[in-house]
Amino acid sequence: MSTKDKTMEKIVSLCKRRGFIYPSSEIYGGLNSCYDYGPLGSELKRSVKDFWWKSMTQTHTDIHGLDSAILMAPRIWEASGHLENFTDPLVDCKNCKSRFRQDHLNGATACPKCQGELTEARQFNLMFKTFMGPLEDAANTVYLRPETAQGIYVNYQNVMTTARAKLPFGIAQIGKAFRNEITPGNFTFRTREFEQMEMQYFVKPGEDDASMDRWKEIRRNWYDKLMINSEKLRFHEHQGNELAHYAKAAYDIEYEFPFGWSELEGVHNRTDFDLSRHQEYSGKNLQYFEESTKEKFIPYIIETSAGCDRSILCILCDAYSEEEERVVLRFAPFIAPVQVAILPLVKKDGLPDIMDNIANKLKKHYRVAKDVSGSIGKRYRRQDEIGTPFCITIDYESKDDNTVTIRHRDSMQQERISIDAIESYIEPALALPID
């Protein structure tokens, strides 16, 4: 097993052991490529989503939020092209019955597992199909959305009207999407149920290139604020057959995972394709009227589409570090699932009371844990392994002089400070870095 494979294996093990991510339905043998976020994982995921949301809607007054339904009119998926084109080429091994995406076989004509003969490729639609109402027939067919973007496009006029928005403006949404992937894998990187963080920015044709450049820079900088190693991030430009038929330009922000360079987020110039298609299929006029010039036109769309689960996996991989005496997750402090751990030296003589008083003050603003079991060294290691930026130790001196020892996760340096000064001490590191 390669070093990178071992690293990924250790991260998966840590996620299960410490309550970040569990296999879904585990007591029933699990469900392939579905995962549940545990106590720490759900806090980490919520923090990342909150940071993305505020980075979009709080720092940009021209971006408005939306939460559209998962189930939508089937006609939407005709207009978007998903019914016709959202397919992967599927092949089966006649011998071992394994199933593969043909385009992932790198030209191989035999089964990579047993060298058996493969079937002819057939197109497999990735959308999950279900039925609305009591009858399971074609007239009642609906789909679990394979992306959240279409919910934004069909609400474009609603948002523009109610928010009194003028071009350029954006619509942001975080939500679940579902794809019946043939070959999911690499832990939470490719799953059948996942969460997207998408923003669609509507601009006047001719202003799209400048907007595209602007959003590429904004979105790349977002990962810097998460303290992701910049040497493991890069842009990949779509060329030739890679470029979707509706796109004028497309770039992926990629991260070097232990299993290789893979996409974190797409920044795409989708032109006027989406709104034009929905205008055609719905019969509704989706043109924008510009009062200053009296022009009517279909806006172009600059899309930023990030996978929340992929972002979490990137953060875990990038934060993971092994040192001689400890394993540590070096999360950006503001997203750490536990930001402050409070550790009384002993569980008697009034020290737990001091712990409770400090926790009651801090928990109003920060994610706080109280840890009282085991030696102080073991407790430090436990908090290092879940990425806690600050540990506060209460000892007998704390009773006499109202001070505590605060330990930094990354440097392991310790400082003695007043209990009254704790909040002002930790606030700069834990504040959300939004401009």
Summarize the structure.
With 435 residues, the protein is an alpha+beta fold. 31% of the residues lie in helices and 27% in strands.
Report on the biggest sheet.
Answer: 7 strands, mixed
What is the structural class? Answer: alpha+beta
The total strand number stands at 23
- As a percent range, the share of helical residues equals 25-40%
Note down, in words, how this protein is organized.
It is a single chain. The protein is of the alpha+beta class and 435 residues long. The protein has three domains: 230 residues, Bira Bifunctional Protein, Domain 2 (BirA Bifunctional Protein, domain 2); 39 residues, no CATH class; 105 residues, Anticodon-binding domain (Rossmann fold). It has 13 helices and 23 strands. A seven-stranded mixed β-sheet has the order 3-9-10-16-13-12-11, sandwiched between helices. Helix 2 crosses helix 9 and helix 3 crosses helix 8. The protein is globular. The protein starts with a helix and ends in a 5-residue tail after the last helix. The mean pLDDT is 92.
How is the secondary structure organized here?
Elements: H1 3-18, E1 21-23, E2 35-37, H2 39-58, E3 63-65, H3 74-80, H4 82-85, E4 87-92, E5 99-101, E6 122-125, E7 129-131, E8 141-143, H5 149-153, H6 156-162, E9 169-178, E10 193-203, H7 208-225, E11 233-237, E12 249-257, E13 260-269, H8 273-282, E14 288-290, E15 295-297, E16 300-307, H9 308-319, E17 320-322, E18 327-329, E19 340-344, H10 351-362, E20 368-370, H11 376-386, E21 390-394, H12 396-401, E22 403-408, E23 414-418, H13 422-430
Parallel strand pairs: 3-9, 19-20, 19-21
Antiparallel strand pairs: 1-2, 4-5, 4-6, 7-8, 9-10, 10-16, 11-12, 12-13, 13-16, 14-15, 17-18, 21-22, 22-23
